[in-house]
TrEMBL record:
Coiled coil: none annotated. Residues 7-321 form the FAD/NAD(P)-binding domain. Residues 340-423 form the Monodehydroascorbate reductase 3-like C-terminal domain. It comes from Tripterygium wilfordii. Belongs to the FAD-dependent oxidoreductase family. The lineage of its organism: Eukaryota, Viridiplantae, Streptophyta, Embryophyta, Tracheophyta. This is monodehydroascorbate reductase (NADH). Its EC number is 1.6.5.4. One of its GO terms (cellular component) is cytoplasm. Pfam families: MDHAR3-like_C, Pyr_redox_2. The keyword Oxidoreductase applies. The chain crosses the membrane at residues 451-472. Keywords: FAD, Flavoprotein, Membrane, NAD, Oxidoreductase, Redox-active center, Transmembrane, Transmembrane helix. InterPro entries: FAD-oxidoreductase/Apoptosis, FAD/NAD-bd_sf, FAD/NAD-binding_dom, FAD/NAD-linked_Rdtase_dimer_sf, MDHAR3-like_C.
Amino acid sequence: MGRAFVYVILGGGVAAGYAALEFTRRGVNPGELCIISEEPVAPYERPALSKGYLLPEDPPRLPSFHTCVGAGEEKLTPKWYKEHGIELVLGTRVKSADVRRMTLLTVAGETISYKTLIIATGARALKLEEFGVHGSDAENVCYLRDLADATRIVDVMQSCSGGKAVVIGGGYIGMECAASLVINRINVTMVFPEEQCMARLFTPKIASYYEEYYKSKGVEFVKGTVLTSFKFDSEGRVTAVNLRDGKQLPADMVVVGIGIRPNTSLFEGQLTLEKGGIKVNGRLQSSNSSVYAVGDVAAFPVKLFGEIRRLEHVDAARKSARHAVAAIMNPNETDEFDYLPFFYSRVFTLSWQFYGDNVGEVVHFGDYSGKTFGAFWVFKGHLVGSFLEGGSKEEYEALAKATRLKPAIEDLSELERHGLSFALAVSKVPPPLPPSNASVSGIVLERQLHAWHATAGVILAASVAAFAYWYGRRRRRW
Ligand SMILES: Cc1cc2nc3c(=O)[nH]c(=O)nc-3n(C[C@H](O)[C@H](O)[C@H](O)COP(=O)(O)OP(=O)(O)OC[C@H]3O[C@@H](n4cnc5c(N)ncnc54)[C@H](O)[C@@H]3O)c2cc1C
C-alpha cells in the first residue's frame, strides 16, 4: 500500500505550518503536498505551550494557536489544509526513510513516496534516563515538548494546587514553567547544575535580575547540583527528589526541562550531519539534493557569522521553512538564507528579546533596578549581539537592525553610556545610495553591486560611529 506526492513535509510542527503557507502562496497544486506528523493535531505555535496554555484563567486552546498566528498570519486550521488540497497525515510516526528510493515508511506500514522531502522533525525533550536517573514515567513527573505534555502538566498542576513543585533545569523551559506554576499557586523550587539561570545566554548580571524577580514571587533556587534519584510512594508517585549534594526536596510534582535532542535518527548514515542536526546549505538543501531540512533539526550556514549553526528557536523554524519552500518552488529567484538569530521569552510581566550572538565582551546598559535594561556583545571590534528586557516594538526593531549591521565599536565605555540610544541611532542611519551609472548588463551590474555592498559596509561602519557620536552629543545637550 502506498501514496505518492510531489512534496512531503516530515513532521507537523511550527516549521511545517509555515512551509505549508508558503507552498500555497507559491502556487502548489491541490494533491501535491502532504504533511506527516506523529502528533494528532494540525501544526500549532509550540511556544504557546509554556506560556498562555498553562495559565489558570482563560488559557488558549486549539484551534486558537494553530500556525501561523504567531507571526500575525493566517490561522491554518484542519479545514484550511483541506480547502487547499494539502493532505494531513496525523497521528502517524514515520519509522524509516530511504532517501535513495525517495520513500518513507510509516508505523502503520504505509509507504509514502516523494519527489522533494522537507525534514521538519524538530527535537524531543531529553529524558532523565539518559543521565542515569530512573522514574520519568511516574504520573507526577512532567516534560514539555508537545500538546500532550502540556495537557498533562495542566492536569497534574490542578491535582496539587497549593503544593510543591520541583523544576529541574534552569533554561527557558524551566524558567517559563516555573513562572506558570507560581501563577497556578504552586510553591516552586528550581534545581540546576550551573551557578545561574539561562547559563547559555544570560550574563551573571542579567541572570541575577531574573533570579531576584523570581525570588520576589516565592521561587527558591538550588544551584550547582543535580537530581540523582526520586523517592516514590506505594502508588509509584514521586514524593521527593534527591540531589547530589545530599539534599532532599519534597515534591507533589516535578517538571523536567534539561534540553532537547534533534530528531535525526531516520537519516543517520544517509545524510551528512553536523552540530547534532542535518547539515544543509544556504538553500536549506541537505547532502541529498531532493531532501531539505528546516527548523530545530537543521544545521544551516548563518552568513552573518560565517558558521554552521543549529538553532532551537521558533523564529528560525518559521523563516527557514519559508526559505526552503522558496528555494524549492522558485530556485532562480531565491538567494542564500541570510538569517539573524533571534530568541525571545515572556514570563510573568517580563519580556525579553535577543538578537545575534553572545560572544566576546559584554557591555550592560540601562537600569537593572528598573524595567528596561539590556546588554551588547562586542566581538573583534564589532557589535554582534544584543539583549533587551522591557523594550518597545520600535526599540526591539532598532536592536535587530543594529545587530545585523555589525557596526564597528571602538570604545566600550561610550557604548555603555549610550546604551539603547546607540542601537536607535544606528538603525536610523540611511543606507548609502547605489552608484547612478550602474550598467544594465547583468554581469557588470552584479559586479558593481558586490563592490557597492562592500563599500556600503565600510561607509556604514564609519557613519555609524559618526552618527552615534553626533546623536549622543545632541542628546546630552537636551
Ligand atoms: C514549550 C516550548 C516553548 C517554547 N518557547 C519558545 C519561545 O518562547 N521562543 C522561541 O524562540 N522558541 C521557543 N520554543 C522553541 C520552538 O517552539 C521550536 O524552535 C520550534 O517548535 C521548532 O519547530 P520545528 O518545526 O523544527 O519542530 P517542532 O515544532 O518540534 O515540530 C516537529 C514535529 O515533527 C514531528 N515528528 C518528529 N519525528 C517524527 C516522525 N518520525 N514521524 C512523524 N512526525 C515526527 C513531531 O511530532 C512534531 O510534530 C519553545 C519550545 C517549546 C517546546
